[in-house]
Amino acid sequence: MNDFLFENRAVVTKFFELAAAISGSWYLRKTKNKKLKVFVYYLWLTVIVETLATYRIFLQKDYTYEWFIAIKNSVFYQNRWLYNIYGFLTIGLLGVFYSDLLTSKTFKLLIRTIVVIYSVFSFFYYTLTDAFFEMGLPYDDILASIITITYVICYFIELMRSEYILQYYKLPSFYISVVLLLWSLCVTPLFIFNDYFRAVNTEFVIFRILMLLYINILSYSCLTFGFWYSLNKSKQLIKSK
Amino acid sequence: MVLAQQEQTINQEQIALIAYVIFASFLLTIMVISFFITFQKRKNKILQDKFKQEQEFNEEILRTKSEIQEQTLKHIGWELHDNVGQLLAYATMQLNMLATKTPEDLKGKISETSNIVKESLKEVRSLSKSLNNEVVLNMGFEDSILNELNRLKRMKFTTTELIITGSQKPIENKKHEIVLFRILQEFFSNSVKYSEADSLNVILDYLEDQLLITVTDNGKGFDATSVEKGSGLINMKSRAELINATFDLESQPNEGVTLKINYTN
User: Fold this and answer.
1) What is the DSSP string of A59-78?
2) Of A130, A184, B98, B149, which one has the fewest beta carbons inside 10 Å?
3) Which of A168, A189, A195 sits opposite B20 (nearest CB)?
């Protein structure tokens, strides 16, 4: 089973991402919950970026069109630039999502400050160096994890203070936050050892790819489940009324 | 050959990893524990609030029931006194006039009838006094009980007695006074209906800030453990609870019924 997953890892990941995005849209259609719109946009963004990123495989082929060769030789050879934009949008969209979701002014301010600082920092880093097409921000993955964990902690603090805690299983934002937290926590150790992600360390490479794959599958399935389950629970409530 | 054990060098990533694992486990544990604790606290609070609401609702219903009952009794009391009382008074007058005009041999019958009508009028007035709570309050607690005992003695019992001990103190809350009177009235009425007793005693014991009321009849009693709680019994008990008084009804078969109420003034 590991081999199957390893061989087809691109397709498998995209399948689960797509499932999560679809269930998110389905939930939105059924409940018209405005606050979740941003997060569902983020899910679709993930699907689109992942799909677009496959152009790199496409580029490996040997076609002789002029424009094809031009792209192949340009800075767009690597799709690093796409993921840089994606990373930046992740922090931004998640920030907007949590900022809308929370009601406490201090937390909103905190989240917005983080987003602004991060945006300014990435902007200056990319424009002042040549890194945009070649690599991401330094410690980008760790930074993203820390920022995500901060968002989720703010959310949980507010949840615990409010009355909604009793209905936590009904809130899709609860499932989203748990998934984001667990994903960030589990994935960070893999990224700490990013430097070792070289072809020479075959064992580590395979381990990391598989681990990331499993974590992604689990996370996106949980998201799908979360949307479906909270939809069920709120339907039940309407039926019983 | 010497197998030298190479010193394992630890690199930066591994240190970072250790620090990270410690931090992440700490964070997760704290989060799970605080989540669980907060959840339980909220749940308990909601349950408590719900319970309190239910209790307040029940008390409110009881109070309304009591008020409606008092209104009805007052209305009946008035009607009895005004309507029936007036008619009986008129009848007495007519009989008196008739008495002056009748021949000697019929005067006995007329006078007997006149007495019966006068008795009826007295009973109606006495009953209407006990129904109307304004009259009860006007007369005072002890006098109202006395009035009721006298009426019942005429009706059914051989002896009735009211004993007052301690320094008499008026009951401060007038509404509670009425409730106490109604409880006693309920007990009297049950005694009349079921006990086949011939003696009914009431002891009012005024203590420092408490009033102990003991009511006994010497009737056939009932088995307190097996009897089904009729609405009268439940009524008395819930009224006592409404005014924060203790309520204790004891009985053995063939040994009469004793009611003890302890009211804090």
Assistant:
1) HTS----HHHHHHHHSGGGS
2) A130
3) A189
Strand partners, B249: B259
- The answer on B87 and B206 residing in a single domain is no
- Rounded distance between C-alpha atoms, residue A51 and residue A58, angstroms: 12
Which residue shows structure tokens 């040997």?
A62
**Domain extent for B252:** 154-265
Q: For residue B42, give the nearest of A153, A166, A193 by CB distance.
A: A166
Interval A101-136: pLDDT, tens: 888 888 899 999 999 999 888 888 888 777 677 666
| Tokens matching residue A207 | 């381990």
Q: What is the Cα–Cα distance from B128 to B85, expressed in whole angstroms?
A: 9
Q: What residues contact A17, with CB distance under 8 A and at least 6 apart?
A: A43, A46, A47, A50, A216, A220
* Claim to verify: residue B213 and residue B172 sit in the same structural domain: yes
Residues B74 and B168 in one domain: no
Least confident of A96-100, A179-183, A224-228, A233-237: A233-237
Tell me the helices (H) and strands (E) count for chain A, helix number first.
10, 0
Residue A17, phi then psi, degrees to nearest 5: -60, -40
Average pLDDT over residues A80-93: 86
In angstroms, what separates the C-alpha of A65 from chain B's closest C-alpha?
45
Q: Record the tokens describing residue A181, joined without a space.
A: 């937290």
For residue B10, give both structure tokens.
């630890």
Specify the CATH number for the domain of residue B162: 3.30.565.10
User: Does residue B140 lie within any of the structural domains?
Assistant: no
Whether B147 maps to a domain, the answer reads no
